[in-house]
């Protein structure tokens, strides 16, 4: 039997992709296989995803998602090659396309992606880059998979480290902002549960305005900043504290850290 897709790695991201693909109708459960080496995790996946084949080794499939930890990619790639899989989308963090192609024996089309953790709730941001044998058909195929759990953009592989620094690590930056806002609300006198609720909804609503209004971040910031008003006073304090520069430095630091992680 040949499956439509085999997902190698049944961890959080692999399972999030599986859930998104099933929910969107991209594939039926019986068309999907998950490869997971840990027996206990296999049992969990069998219970959580009825109809999906869960096994320790891959079988022939039209394509595969490589969702393993760095260091496990070579073994997983060889197993996919032995199963005859010729089209692979890799979300293995920091693993270069050339290394994946080598593990697959050099004959497979590879698309490498950098998703982020909001994919776990269907609101991810991912960038994809093609390997030497991946054309428009393979990129469209990879987009169809990742778009089930969020937004997808195309970039050359040379920019995936920058993607890691921005959207890959970005959720952690925003969670830190959320922590700070919650504490600030408490400091200003709000009960903690009220501060948490207001902070969460403020971040959610602001993200929706940014994506749905058609305005730029600069335009939206200006619209809420009255001359001499409360927001202007708050922004002045943030600029004095170097917040803008700190975000620039954070993205650049994460980008630079990403580069050696993929070197072998």
Describe this structure in words.
By secondary structure, the protein is an alpha/beta fold. 52% of the residues lie in helices and 14% in strands. Strand 4, helix 3 and strand 5 form a beta-alpha-beta unit. It is elongated. The mean pLDDT is 94.
Main traits of this protein?
eight-stranded mixed β-sheet; 11 helices; 264 residues; 8 strands
What topology emerges from the helices and strands here?
Elements (H helix, E strand, L loop, with lengths): L4 E4 L3 H13 L7 E4 L3 H10 L4 E3 L8 E3 L6 H10 L4 E4 L6 H7 L5 E6 L9 E7 L5 H11 L3 E5 L5 H9 L1 H18 L4 H21 L4 H7 L6 H11 L2 H19 L3
Parallel strand pairs: 1-2, 1-4, 2-3, 4-5, 5-6, 7-8
Antiparallel strand pairs: 6-7
Helix pairs in contact: 3-4, 6-11, 7-8
What is the strand content? 5-15%
Largest sheet: 8 strands, mixed
For the record, give the distance between the C-alpha atoms at the N and C termini, rounded to a whole number: 36 Å
Structural class: alpha/beta
Shape: elongated
Counting copies of identical and different chains, the oligomeric state is: single chain
Unreliable stretches covering 5 or more consecutive residues: none
Mean model confidence by pLDDT: 94
**DSSP helix count?**
11
Q: How do the helices and strands follow one another from N- to C-terminus? A: EHEHEEHEHEEHEHHHHHH
Number of strands: 8
How do the strands line up in the largest sheet? 3-2-1-4-5-6-7-8
The Cα radius of gyration reads 21 Å
């Amino acid at each position: 039997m040949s499956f439509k897709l085999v997902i190698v790695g049944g961890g959080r991201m692999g399972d999030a992709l599986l859930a998104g693909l099933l929910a969107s109708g991209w594939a039926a459960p019986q068309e999907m296989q998950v490869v997971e080496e840990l027996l206990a995790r296999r049992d969990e996946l069998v219970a959580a995803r009825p109809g999906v084949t869960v096994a320790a080794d891959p079988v022939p499939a039209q394509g595969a998602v490589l969702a393993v930890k760095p260091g496990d990619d070579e073994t997983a790639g060889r197993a996919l090659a032995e199963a005859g899989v010729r089209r692979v989308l890799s979300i293995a963090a920091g693993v270069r396309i050339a290394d994946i192609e080598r593990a697959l024996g050099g004959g497979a089309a590879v698309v490498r992606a950098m998703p982020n953790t909001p994919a776990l709730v269907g609101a991810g941001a991912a960038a994809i880059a093609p390997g030497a044998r991946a054309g428009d058909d393979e990129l469209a195929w990879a987009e169809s998979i990742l778009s089930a759990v969020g937004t997808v953009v195309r970039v050359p592989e040379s920019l995936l480290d920058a993607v890691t620094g921005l959207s890959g690590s970005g959720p952690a930056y925003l969670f830190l902002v959320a922590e700070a806002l919650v504490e600030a609300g408490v400091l200003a006198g709000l009960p903690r549960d009220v501060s948490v609720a207001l902070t969460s909804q403020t971040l959610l609503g602001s993200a929706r305005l940014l994506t749905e209004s058609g305005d730029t971040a600069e335009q939206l910031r200006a619209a809420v900043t009255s001359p001499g008003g409360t927001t202007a006073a708050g922004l002045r304090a943030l600029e004095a504290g170097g917040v803008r520069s700190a975000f620039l430095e954070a993205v650049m630091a994460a980008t630079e850290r990403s580069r050696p992680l993929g070197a072998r």
